[in-house]
Amino acid sequence: MDDDTGVFTISLDTELAWGTFDKGNVERYEKAYRNTPEVIDQLCDLFDEYEIPATWAVVSHLLEDCGGNHPDRTSPDFEWVDDWFGELPCASGMDEELWYAPWLLNRIQDCGTEQEIGLHGSTHMQLGADGCSWRHAEEEIGVAVETLRSHGIEPKSFVFPRNDIGHLDVLQEHGIEAYRGVDARWYERASVPDVLKPSLRFADEAARLKPSVVEPVERGDIVEVPGSQVFRPSHNGWKYTLGGSSVARARKGLECAARVGGVFHLWLHPFNLGHELEKDLTRFEDLLRVVKQFVERRDIECRSMNDLIHCSREYGDAA
Ligand SMILES: [Zn+2]
Ligand SMILES: [Zn+2]
Questions:
Q1: Is the pLDDT of residue 306 over 80?
Q2: DSSP for residue 195
Q3: Are 194 and 219 in contact (CB under 8 A)?
Q4: What is the CATH number for 281?
Q5: Would 213 be classed as within a structural domain?
Q6: How many separate domains does the chain show?
Q7: Helix axes 245-260, 197-206, angle to 10 degrees
């Protein structure tokens, strides 16, 4: 790849109720979770139609029905949940449809455009949070990698649950080569109180601010690919931003990536498109149509995260 061609990459936090069980708000997203198999099916069709090699970061426990048994694991000492392994969806009697998706890998691998399958943990453990020791991280990542290997997949890319970065050495040790960093916006830094972030993100969206174009950064033997923009769902407060804002912002990001030869990294959770299935998928296809225009002009190339870090580019220096 030429160094001056822009790149579009997309990562998908694929998790169902694993993403919310520990915060006790699964019910709030239940409808979207139940629509997620349909969303994923249609996303796969769209990625084929628009030739997009996406990176699917999956919670590996989606692939396993353990019967609620995790006898060899020790619960992390998080302040918001007492007994991690006792409260997992698989152990708490939750409807399987909300957390078990054995069909997932086959559907993704059936795509004609090759998709990358990476990881988002085995139980969506927040690796950077206080209470997650090296041992907890080691078990969480070890189990996740083992599960994918049992399906013939060697995962190379990782998305941290809640983008909470920690224990990079454990990822490296298990063969992970790249992870998504937090969005390149000043307020996404850890030093900014979490309570302020939603309104700042909302302001960016409402103002249709140009998302940041990024470059991969080497962090020791692992590469960080920061995020540029989350593709917003159309529920909660987000419906009050104008419907086209996500697409308008992405267009600005792609224009900039094409101009400077940088990377535009979009990300979302598939269930984000499950609140108003048809409307959300139409909005998402609008974005892919914009990507296609850039690709046809040879201003942008589409790459998975792993493909991206192996193409010949200069990496930035670690800050
Ligand atoms: Zn389990
Ligand atoms: Zn997640």
A1: yes
A2: G
A3: no
A4: 3.20.20.370
A5: yes
A6: 1
A7: 80
Q: How far is the CA of 115 from the centre of ligand 1 (A)?
A: 26
Neighbours of ion ligand 2 (CB under 5 A): 13, 15, 19, 161
Please report whether residue 317 resides in a domain: no
d(CA 88, ligand 1 centre) in Å: 7
- State which residues form the domain around 268: 6-310
Cβ contact 84:7 at 8 Å: no
- Whether 192 is in a domain gets the answer yes
**pTM for this prediction:** 0.91
- In tens, the pLDDT along 226-248 reads 999 999 776 655 554 555 688 98
268 CA from centroid of ligand 2 (Å)? 9
d(CA 189, CA 192): 6
Compute the chain's Rg from CA coordinates.
Answer: 19
The tens digit of pLDDT for each residue in 168-191 reads 999 999 999 999 998 766 656 666
Could you report the per-residue pLDDT of 52-96, keeping only the tens digit for each? 999 999 999 999 999 998 988 899 999 999 999 999 999 999 999
Residue 316 lies in a domain: no
The answer to whether the CB of 227 falls within 8 A of the CB of 181 is yes
Residue 43 sits at φ, ψ, to 5 deg, of -60, -45
The ligand whose atoms approach the alpha carbon of 158 most closely is 2
Q: Please tell me the number of the ligand nearest to residue 58's CA.
A: 2
The Cα–Cα gap between 274 and 159 comes to: 21
